[in-house]
Amino acid sequence: xxxxxxxxxxxxxxxxxxxxxxxxxxxxxxxxxxxxxxxxxxxxxxxxxxxxxxxxxxxxxxxxxxxxxxxxxxxxxxxxxxxxxxxxxxxxxxxxxxxxxxxxxxxxxxxxxxxxxxxxxxxxxxxxxxxxxxxxxxxxxxxxxxxxxxxxxxxxxxxxxxxxxxxxxxxxxxxxxxxxxxxxxxxxxxxxxxxxxxxxxxxxxxxxxxxxxxxxxxxxxxxxxxxxxxxxxxxxxxxxxxxxxxxxxxxxxxxxxxxxxxxxxxxxxxxxxxxxxxxxxxxxxxxxxxx
Length: 291
Prior knowledge:
Blueprint: E1 14-15, E2 19-23, E3 27-32, E4 37-38, E5 41-42, H1 50-64, E6 71-73, E7 94-98, E8 101-102, E9 105-112, H2 115-124, E10 126-127, E11 130-131, E12 141-147, E13 150-151, H3 163-170, H4 172-195, E14 198-210, E15 213-217, E16 226-230, H5 246-254, H6 268-286
Antiparallel strand pairs: 1-2, 2-3, 3-7, 4-5, 6-7, 8-14, 9-12, 9-13, 9-14, 10-11, 14-15, 14-16
């Protein structure tokens, strides 16, 4: 069953680009649909099972990272769904999370030189304004992971901001905590993934406050929020084959789409290859078969 959007009796969700979010008062039901977005557009084609894969990868990481987070349960029978709910629409793709005051900053961590970071480095030797050593090649590992925050835009593009701007936006104590926690979680996740044969080149996190405690929230280290590469095929000096939605971005770019008008449908082979990449990431990270 592919899910474009969900419906819960008596509840209207807030629909994000790829998730439907239901407010249960002191908790949120986050439902990962099969929608996929790229270049700030929701694509007209869904990726079958994508929502289930991403939801289960996040649940895996929340359980193993050992950091304070918003996760309550991914067990459909432990969720306060209205009587008569068609659980098949929500099973496997839903997560109940504590309701936090989300900090309005995308916490991006880059461990390798790729994407927009590589483009900037070629021009100025920097990534998001942070000076890097000379002579680095595309896809090189950085000497140390760097924290490169951005704004959280409700619509349109997020914008990179400096650490000083982050301080102005959320205060120095929160900015320091965001940087420290983001770098720590990235290192933990990257170290684990590397042992499994996956390089996490970069990722983004979200955090929220609950009763004065800063919690990791939203999704974590998924193929939608991260750049995943295979250790086996990694070769610095060029772009890398991905286990994430960069594959879709690349196809869209090569298709000739102008990125300003409604996006085209994805061909069936691109849909299936994308689905398989997500499954491969899930199975490699968790050691479980995707059912």
